[in-house]
Amino acid sequence: MSFLDRYIAAIKHGSPGHGDTIVNRPRWGAILRDVVILIGVWIVLENVWPFYSVPTGSRGVITQFGKITGIEPEGLAMLPPWQKLTLFSIRAEQADIDNASGATSDTQPVTVSLTVRYSISPDKVSEVFEKYSHSGDLSSYVQTATHEIFKAVTAKYTAPDLIAERAKVSADIYAALAQKLMVYGAQVINIDMRNFAFQESYMRAINSKVEQEQLRQAADNKLKTVESEQKQKVAIAEAEASAVKATADGNAYATLKIAEAQAEALKIQNAALASGPNVLELRRIQVEQTKADRWNGQLPVNVYAGAPIPFFNPSK
User: Fold this and answer.
1) CB 109: neighbour CB atoms within 10 A?
2) Co-location of 109 and 184 in the same domain
3) Is 11 within the bounds of a domain?
4) Residue 304, domain member (yes or no)
5) Are residues 85 and 96 in the same domain?
6) Phi/psi zone of residue 239: left (φ > 0), alpha (ψ -120 to 50 degrees), beta?
7) Residue 288 resides in a domain
8) Is the pLDDT at 30 greater than 50, yes or no?
């Protein structure tokens, strides 16, 4: 009979007396014995239960009397009672480093906040479990290493370069930290680096320098614009002068050619005159023909003394 059955029977049954049913007291000894038996069974099952589950993103570290004997992958694992399985995370972990401090090569103090995401290499689980962490949390090691790396990297840059070459600085920190964390069996996934913070006096000096640089660039741009406009005007003037010169050269050339043609014509005429007297008569006839072609058929209304009469030559 089980513990529950005996307890119910103890309540229901009793001995009659004075016309009433008397309920017996529970038998506490039997109840206590059953409770002890249940606890013992639970403890035994807890220690000898052979089935274990290793969830995704974890590894199961098998130990026997404190010694690592194997690593179980994700899934179902079955172990004998004398072995123990401890879950070990290989998921991405995050370490927040606030106000990591350093100094630049020009002795300017600088602080920055970083977030480092990392994970344990699956082939390093046994080593990390034995030396550093039983759960896969290496945040304390990561924070210490990040502070050390940040000091070393910032010492290679001046303060202006640290701001201007932010991406290169982040890459240098990533490379150095990845090499450092390999000692602890961890691999760096990425680094988020927030704004650099310098001393207030230095920040004011930087802002003033930036403003001066902007003003200088504005002045340089204005000067370049003026120089460009002047060069454009000079180019236009030179083009106009070239055009005028070309026109003048063309006119002079044309005049020269006309003069040469006229001289050649005079030369030919002189040669003709020298060769025969009829040339002048022929020339006179051509002039008279031109006049006749241009005459409109009207005679002059008034004829003055000595004025020639068209087509009338009394000497002929």
Assistant:
1) 14
2) yes
3) yes
4) no
5) no
6) alpha
7) no
8) yes
Q: Where are the alpha helices (DSSP H) in 138-297?
A: 139-154, 159-164, 166-181, 200-275, 278-294
pLDDT tens column, 165-216: 888 999 999 999 999 999 999 999 999 988 778 777 776 777 777 777 777 8
Nearest to 111 by CA among 60, 70, 162: 162
Q: Looking at residue 122, what DSSP letter applies?
A: G
Separation between Cα atoms, residue 165 and residue 188, nearest integer Å: 21
Beta-carbon contacts of residue 16 (< 8 Å; ≥ 6 apart):
22
* Number of domains into which the chain is organized: 3
Same domain, 111 and 84: no
State whether 83 and 109 are in the same domain.
no
Tokens matching residue 166: 């932010």
- For residue 45, give the amino acid letter: L
State how far the Cα of 53 lies from the Cα of 76, in Å rounded to an integer: 5
In this structure, the answer to whether residues 37 and 66 fall within a common structural domain is: no
Range of the domain at 190: 91-198
Same domain, 165 and 139: yes
297, pLDDT greater than 80: no
Task: Name the helix (H) or strand (E) containing 114.
Answer: strand 109-120
> What is the pTM for the complete model shown?
0.52
CB atoms inside a 10 Å sphere around CB 181: 22
Higher-confidence residue of 87 and 283: namely 87
263 bridge partner residues: none
3-state secondary structure of 304: coil
